[in-house]
């Protein structure tokens, strides 16, 4: 493994200044559960790792209306946060299924999103909650929808000298219920073959589905929303036929590849099955 330097700045200002100084030679590191693996596999070879650990303002979970989650919050903290479990249960479930307890103790939400793996555990739940990401650099700050943050496998809208500061979540409308399903080759320590999040807002009097959000992971170059499937169920009282149609639509909208985990055909079939299942679970 190529030798590298490691710096542990004390403030976000210092991080931004180091990024400015070292440019492409530097790489940020949160928990290191992706970055160090990639370094060992020679997929990245920075001269310098800049640690984000312990930087004030990156590890908060706070907010009454808008919930702000610092990029350095670990999956274990998300899994165990009563606030997130109550208000954004799909995110809580997804973080709780990532890796193992040991991994979750160090791996961060920010790292999961910035790695931009198509199968990123937390991406489908955050997409159905319509999360935004707050980015910061020496040039200023900006907020963009998570959906436009992912550009391709391993590629994000982050600029060279930008840091993901926090993830922002607006509360979903009242009477919203959902489900998160992960299909892996085994129950723990494996990336998703397919992961699906569904969030439905149901009219309590009529039972009509007023709003539907469906997101998929591991079946396209980035995690995706499937609006075509959402449109099939939105505005309707859900029945078996509509649920099946939504599953079929999701199946035909995604563009999975074959890899070591599964064939594209299997992934596509599983999208149909899991979308249907997640819709039904959301209704119970
Ligand atoms: C054994 C094992 C099991 C795993 N299981 C799963 C799984 O089930 N599901 C899953 O989705 N992932 C899994 N992973 C991958 C990994 O643990 C997660 O993606 C994790 O959330 C990465 O977080 P991290 O803090 O360790 O990121 P790091 O490795 O520190 O960083 C990852 C990337 O993000 C960049 N980065 C980190 N933080 C920021 C920031 N704030 N701003 C800008 N850039 C930043 C880094 O430069 C780097 O490119 C697993 C990994 C291992 C080793």
Provide a short characterization of the protein structure:
The protein is of the alpha+beta class. The protein is 36% helix and 25% strand. It contains twelve helices and 15 strands.
Structural commentary:
By secondary structure, this protein is α+β, with helices and mostly antiparallel strands. It folds into three domains: 5-51, Uridine Diphospho-n-acetylenolpyruvylglucosamine Reductase, domain 2 (2-Layer Sandwich); 61-169, Uridine Diphospho-n-acetylenolpyruvylglucosamine Reductase, domain 3; 178-283, Enolase-like, domain 1 (2-Layer Sandwich). It has twelve helices and 15 strands. Strands 4-5-10-6-7 form a five-stranded antiparallel sheet. Strands 11, 12, 13, 14 and 15 form a five-stranded antiparallel sheet that branches. The longest helix is centred in the last third of the chain and has 20 residues, at 264-283. The structure holds flavin-adenine dinucleotide. The site of flavin-adenine dinucleotide has 29 residues, from strand 2, helix 2, helix 7 and strand 10. Flavin-adenine dinucleotide (FAD) binds at residues 27-35, 37, 52, 71, 98-99, 103, 107-108, 110-112, 114-115, 120-121, 158, 163-164, 189, 191.
Key descriptive features of the protein:
5-stranded antiparallel beta sheet; alpha+beta; 3 domains; Uridine Diphospho-n-acetylenolpyruvylglucosamine Reductase, domain 2; Uridine Diphospho-n-acetylenolpyruvylglucosamine Reductase, domain 3; 284 residues; 25% strand; Enolase-like, domain 1; binds flavin-adenine dinucleotide; 12 helices; 15 strands
């Amino acid at each position: 493994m190529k030798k590298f330097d490691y710096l542990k700045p004390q403030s976000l200002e210092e991080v931004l200044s180091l990024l400015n100084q070292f440019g492409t030679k530097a790489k940020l590191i949160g928990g290191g559960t992706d970055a160090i693996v990639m370094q060992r596999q020679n997929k990245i070879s920075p001269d310098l790792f800049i640690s984000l650990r312990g930087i004030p303002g990156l590890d908060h979970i706070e907010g009454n209306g808008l919930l702000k989650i610092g990029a350095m919050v670990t999956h274990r903290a998300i899994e165990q946060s009563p606030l997130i479990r109550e208000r954004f249960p799909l995110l809580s479930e997804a973080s709780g299924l990532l890796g193992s307890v040991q991994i979750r103790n160090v791996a961060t939400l920010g790292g999961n999103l910035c790695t931009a793996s198509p199968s990123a555990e937390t991406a489908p739940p955050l997409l159905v909650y319509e999360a935004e990401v707050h980015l910061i650099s020496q040039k200023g700050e900006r907020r963009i929808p998570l959906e436009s943050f992912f550009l391709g496998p391993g590629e994000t809208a982050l600029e060279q000298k930008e840091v993901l500061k926090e993830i922002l979540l607006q509360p979903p409308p009242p009477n919203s219920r959902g489900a998160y399903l992960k299909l892996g080759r085994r129950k723990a320590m494996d990336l998703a073959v397919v992961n699906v999040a569904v969030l439905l807002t149901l009219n309590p009097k009529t039972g009509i589905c007023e709003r539907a959000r469906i997101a998929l992971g591991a079946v396209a170059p980035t995690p995706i929303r499937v609006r075509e499937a959402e449109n099939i169920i939105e505005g309707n009282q859900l029945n078996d036929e509509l649920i099946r149609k939504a599953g079929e639509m999701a199946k035909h909208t995604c563009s999975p590849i074959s890899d070591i985990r599964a064939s594209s055909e299997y992934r596509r079939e599983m999208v149909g099955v899991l979308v249907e299942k997640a819709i039904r679970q959301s209704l119970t």
